[in-house]
Amino acid sequence: MVTPADDRSRPARESSRASLGECLLVLLVGLAAAGIFWRDTLSSRFEVISGNLGDNRLIIALHEHWFAVFRGRDVWDRPLFFWGADHVLGFSDGMFLSAIPYAVLRSLGLDPYVAFQIVLVSLTLLAFVAGHVLFRRELALPRTLALLGAIVLAFSTQIAFGRYAAQNLYVCLGPVLLLLASSFLRDVEAARARALVFGVPLAVLLALTFFSSFNFAWFFTFFLLLVGVLCVAGNARRSRGLATRRRMVLLLSTVAVFVVALLPFLVTYLPLVSAGFVRGYDQAIPHLLEPAQLLNRSSVLWRFGRPWVGARSLENYALTPGVVLVFLLACVHLWRHRRQPTRNQALPLERLLAPTAIAVVLATTLVVRAGEHSLWWFVYEAVPGASANRAVMRFLYVIGLFTVIVAFGYLGRIARAGRRGGRAAALLVGVVLVLEQYADHPVDLISRDAEVERIQRVPFPPPGTSVFFVVMAEPEGADRRSKWPNIVAQIDAMLVAERFGIPTLNGYSGWYPRGWDLAPPIGSEVYLERTRAWLARHEIRGRVAALDLARRRWLPLGPIRTARVADST
Questions:
Q1: What is the CA 439 to chain-centroid distance, rounded?
Q2: What is the pLDDT of residues 296-318, one digit of tens each?
Q3: How far apart are CA 84 and CA 533, in angstroms?
Q4: In sequence order, what are the beta bridge partners of 38?
Q5: What is the DSSP letter of 51?
Q6: How many Cβ atoms sit within 10 Å of the Cβ of residue 538?
Q7: CB within 8 A of 240, min separation 6: which ones?
């Protein structure tokens, strides 16, 4: 016999089973998509690591620095490279947030390369899960369409190419930040104190993202401010109505938390800004896109047999043609229905689709150039922090994030419209958008076995060594490393420094200390003279050692003295 209590509890049990089933489905789809996306790394059993011999090896060295900091071995703002210079951490992205799971994996016994790769894989899975929740909860998309949208968000050709420099993958935090922001705005509108439950983690996470990947954090914040300005301009009366005392307290409290959490970033980077470390607008020009580069045709679906355009082509930062086309159709739809009330009034993100679409168009025009001219000049001159961004094309990662959201928001409206075939058409388009993300970019170019052997083969330095520098790089033509012999050797020195906990004069980053110019061919007379000058200028004392990278040996100080390098020791 079924009692009334059983009848009331049955919907709850069925809802719980449905939620569990959807969670399992999301997990399985995410793992399958990640398996295809990271197929080269996974099939090699993590012998192949993402990136080339530049940025990602630098980022591994920075993660090793944080691992040493968490163990109490290093000073947080003084990595063991460019020794003698001040504010060294500020010369590159801090990579703090990704260093936390990295340090956990290293503590479990994984080597730097496997730990680094697992962090990258985890970031894309995080973006997939958060993207699915975002589409389901904040845009009310059907389950299958939300899964397709999450795949495009997390495993796009943009993200595939972004593996070259792991700081680009911080865009995977975008869906998480948007989830927190949407929940925060919903509770602020209702003037509920619960808004701080979402506002505080939003403020802390965004602030620490500035400390980890400045480019992404700045572009993301700039885009949100652009959306905010459009919202206020489009509905000034409603905006004034929302400015009640209680709502302002919630907003200002969140801003205060953000400012406090931003202190590590400010302490790290403001001294460099005050010292004049800013980018000239002329440095940004080569990183702006020509109109023809606004479509990414490097996926297998759009290549049509032509060879990949290469790692240096700016079109790899752009979105695929299908996503762009659906976005343009969404813009037309939003314009035609601009005066109609939004169906889901309780969902802030649904109501913000129109200003977001306008912001995407405006932001895209900013990163386009005609010859030497671009609207980015106005941003560079007027917006604080813009002068620190040389790689302006990375703005396309943020633009791409919101473009996909608008495109799938439009497909969701088609699916919910109730018209015959609308849902099937939306799903079919979603499938096509997923298929066009399949790419065969050769971006996993680091051999873990070769890297581990290369660094592990370096013997322990002479007893009492307090600082070292590299005197010989890999012999010319020895392997593909010879393409960038100086850069590779500089990063090798950084990895050796972190392995032994002994600082090095060498280094590589986005900025270089003033007076540091150890870039000539390593081992040349000019290089040795500048090394001696750096030691003397910064009064570096103690036992200075020299590492011959080509032969994996530490040189005695006698031969170095003849080159007048160790006079100050």
A1: 19
A2: 888 887 876 666 666 678 888 88
A3: 12
A4: none
A5: B
A6: 17
A7: none
